Amino acid sequence: MKTTYIAERLFDGEQFHHNVPLSVVDGHIVAWNTLAGGREVRLNGTLVPGFIDVQVNGGGGVLFNDSPTLAGIAAIVTAHARFGTTAMLPTLITDRLEVMERAADAVAEALVKGMPGVLGIHFEGPHLSVPKKGVHPQQHIRRIGERELALLCREELGQRVVTLAPENVAPEVIRALVDSGARVCLGHSNADYDTVQAALAAGASGFTHLFNAMSPLTSREPGMVGAALESRETWCGMIVDGHHVHPAAARIAIAAKPKGKIMLVTDAMPPVGQEQASSFELFGSRVLRQGDRLNAMTGELAGCVLDMAGAVQNTVAMLGVAQAEAIRMATLYPAEFLGLADSIGTLKPGMRADMVLLDDAGKCLGTWMAGVQVFGL
């Protein structure tokens, strides 16, 4: 059945339009800017492409590490759909190999069953740097073994992102991961500039939550931050919540990188989607919520209660980025990073009908995954 949506305002990925019809059949956009028949639905607000989040640890009271199951993934997807996320990589932080395998099996099952919203998996660790571990459990940080390498190379896991510290993973291993189809991001690392360059030459293509948990840029040692900002080809995820990155540092990064190479991520934790949630357990330690900030008992930032609609709003309000560009940072650019820009990330004929309706303040009023409304009245 064809459904034609006519929104007050529509952002197609390039520019805004007013009262432009958009027709959907079988989950895909089939016509644009023409009344092509079918059921008509008028939408009050701004219709934009669905948000794509490549770093989602949890939501709806669920931490992926604690619930590496199909039900756990479904709960996380449902929580983030309230805030416009239509595609994500459930993210497993540093843990035991057995937990990694269970998470991988759950994602593989979700993909086989066609669970909406799931693109693959992000393994953030365990092959990280202890000095830059953040809240990752030190007891599980380790060198990569054959069994882990085989797990990270499993093709049935869809889009695979692996965050690692290049001082602990040899360039030839990075190359093997990339050759398997994984996207390697560098992060939680104290690597020097030359070590980062070797990892990039081996095929690493991204940096995980730029500025956070990585060697800084200084005058005589550029560190990982300097290498990330200098690189023209790589993508950088950035957490725009007002806590992880100072607005001035975020603006510098946006100015330094080529357009399209900074993408918004949430690094979301279980409280997202739970307005009353105040704290949760993380590997036996308490994480406290104070407003929109999460801290471990030892003081470190412990992920976020940020959602993608909020990240876009913050990028406009805190950084002075135009709304169109902020939306691209949450849609087109992560799609390009994942190599999926031919199917998601814009609202044009042939694309999957992943859509979000926003009000004038940028809050999510409705969410559609493959043409099916999963949130909103």
TrEMBL record:
Name the SUPFAM superfamilies on file: Composite domain of metallo-dependent hydrolases, Metallo-dependent hydrolases
Q: Which GO terms describe its molecular function?
A: N-acetylglucosamine-6-phosphate deacetylase activity
Domain Amidohydrolase-related residues, every copy: 46-364
EC assignment: 3.5.1.25
Q: What CDD domains does the database record attribute to this sequence?
A: NagA
Key words, A-Z: Carbohydrate metabolism, Hydrolase, Metal-binding
Among InterPro entries, the record links this protein to: Amidohydro-rel, GlcNAc_6-P_deAcase, Metal-dep_hydrolase_composite, Metal_Hydrolase
UniProt lists the gene as: nagA
The cross-references to PANTHER family, in alphabetical order and at most eight, read: N-ACETYLGLUCOSAMINE-6-PHOSPHATE DEACETYLASE
Give the record's family classification: Belongs to the metallo-dependent hydrolases superfamily. NagA family.
Listed name of the protein:
N-acetylgalactosamine-6-phosphate deacetylase
Q: Which reaction does it catalyse?
A: N-acetyl-D-glucosamine 6-phosphate + H2O = D-glucosamine 6-phosphate + acetate
